[in-house]
Write a structure and sequence with these properties.
Blueprint lengths: L1 H18 L8 H13 L2 H7 L1 H18 L8 H33 L9 H4 L2 H33 L7 H25 L2 H7 L6 H12 L1 H41 L10 H41 L7
Length: 316
């Protein structure tokens, strides 16, 4: 009896370990739910561990948004210097955010718990290695996006001087086709980031593997891309609504002042606007993190499917 019970306990333990594996096949809904759970299961600990990145991110983002409302009154050298300085900080914090997200994913992949992590265990050499990967990913993605936008612009300029109705219709149809092709490529490209951040090996190979797997499993990538885009987009819009109202009122007030109109804003309006921008930016940091974690679990599922199909690991 004792031996049978021990075998049952061992089997239950092994089953739990199998269920908690990072690299396993999941459906789209499971990828989304486990991606969200990664950040929310030990939310307070995750919040605490991310403060070194989220606080400067929120401050720089709020300051840039606040300064941008005053550009309408005239862009001075000092204002430009402040905007460029905090834009640099925001860019570095965005890189650090990507590295932090995938450090949390690495913790999950190692079957460890965020609850047990410290600043020392998170911000280690792996974090800085991921930061370098994130930097190159952002640069390469920006170049590819610029090329895509340039091609669309060139297409729109071809024959633009002698358009007639028939040519305009064909032009619009061609533009729709080009945009659909670019959207198809972009959805497959969503698998590149987790591949680059998590796959070991050469620098170039993860880009090729991620893009290739993204196309092979395009349907799954499309589903998760739409879900996370809707989730992050809707939540971000609702979250940013108060900040949008504040900045709109501020811009309208400054425009009226420039036209010589009298403007009476509530007392301490700019202080409350900055506080709203700061809180919004701080929460937005974590909302953006939610975009990447489901994609990471989708990458793990796609990679596992491919390895099982190749016979590299046993079917479960």
């Amino acid at each position: 009896m004792e031996q049978s019970k021990a075998l049952q306990d061992q089997g239950a333990t092994e089953g739990t370990e199998q269920d908690n594996r990072f690299y396993k096949i999941r459906n789209t809904g499971k990828c989304l739910s486990e991606g969200i759970s990664l950040l929310t299961e030990h939310f307070l600990r995750m919040l605490f561990l991310s403060l070194p990145v989220s606080i400067p991110y929120a401050l720089s983002s709020a300051i840039i948004a606040h300064l941008s409302t005053h550009i309408i009154s005239g862009l001075t050298i000092s204002m430009l210097v402040w905007i460029l300085s905090f834009s640099t900080i925001l860019f570095l914090c965005s890189i650090a955010m990507l590295a932090l997200v995938f450090r949390f994913v690495e913790v999950k992949a190692s079957n460890e718990s965020l609850k047990q992590q410290t600043f020392k265990s998170i911000y280690n050499k792996n974090f800085f290695g991921l930061s370098i990967k994130a930097l190159f990913y952002i640069i390469i993605t920006s170049i590819l996006a610029a090329i895509a936008c340039g091609l669309v612009f060139i297409y729109m300029m071809i024959g633009s001087k002698d358009w007639d109705l028939d040519k305009t219709i064909l032009k619009v149809i061609g533009l729709v086709v080009i945009l659909l092709v670019l959207l198809t490529i972009a959805i497959a490209y969503n698998n590149v980031l987790p591949t680059v951040m998590l796959q070991k090996g050469s620098f170039v190979r993860p880009y090729i593997d991620g893009f290739k797997r993204g196309f092979k499993k395009w349907g799954k990538m499309m589903q998760i891309s739409v879900l996370v885009a809707l989730l992050v987009g809707v939540v971000s819009f609702l979250l940013n609504a108060p900040a949008i109202v504040f900045t709109f009122v501020q811009r309208a007030a400054l425009t009226s002042q420039l036209n010589g109109d009298a403007v009476n804003l509530p007392d301490h309006f700019e202080i409350w606007m900055f506080i709203t921008l700061l809180i919004t930016s701080f929460v937005s940091f974590y909302i953006q993190m939610l975009y990447f974690t489901p994609l990471s679990f989708t990458y793990a599922s796609i990679k596992t499917e491919e390895e099982e199909a190749d016979g590299a690991i046993p079917m479960v």
